[in-house]
Amino acid sequence: MEVFTYLCSPLKKADHLIIHKNGKMNNYELMVIFTPVLSDDEYKAAQKKYESFVKENGGEVVNSKPWELKSLAYPIAKKTTGLYWVMEYKAPSSFNEKLKIQLLRDESVMRHMFTILDKYAVEYNAKKRSGVSSVTENAEV
């Protein structure tokens, strides 16, 4: 695997942008909390918007799961509930900055969080989707 390193600024030697020549896709999970005042149609449209944004930029949506309305741990913008949505996707690392900008511009998004998934997390999510219980889940039951 060849890795190219580019200097972001000639003055800042510590800031490097790593670009994989083979176009390696990384696994990510995105959790978004939408404002609770969205209608069902608006909530579904917002999900579709971000799924299509991932696909348009060369990514692949692995799984999308709406968690619906949940209580928040603390009030955000005087709201105590939010519409949660989780999307697992594959994309180049440079894509997340574009997605972050879109999420910050969207007034219906109260909070968002990206998580980089390692191979164990990807395997766990795949097992969970297929209905296979893990060892820790069996121990709790």
Care to describe what's here?
The chain has one domain (23-132): Ribosomal protein S6/Translation elongation factor EF1B (Alpha-Beta Plaits), CATH 3.30.70. With 141 residues, it is an alpha+beta fold. Helices cover 33% and strands 45% of the residues. The chain is built from four helices and six strands; from the N terminus they run E-E-E-H-E-E-H-E-H-H.
Q: Summary?
A:
The chain is an alpha+beta fold. The chain has helices at 40-56, 95-105, 119-130, 135-140; strands spanning 3-9, 12-20, 26-34, 60-76, 79-91, 109-116. Strand 4 and strand 5 (79-91) form a beta hairpin.
Question: Secondary-structure map with pairings?
Answer:
Elements lengths: L2 E7 L2 E9 L5 E9 L5 H17 L3 E17 L2 E13 L3 H11 L3 E8 L2 H12 L4 H6 L1
Antiparallel strand pairs: 1-2, 3-5, 3-6, 4-5
How many domain modules? 1
Largest sheet: 4 strands, antiparallel
Order of helices and strands: EEEHEEHEHH
Number of helices: 4
CATH architecture: 2-Layer Sandwich
Could you give the order of strands across the largest sheet? 4-5-3-6
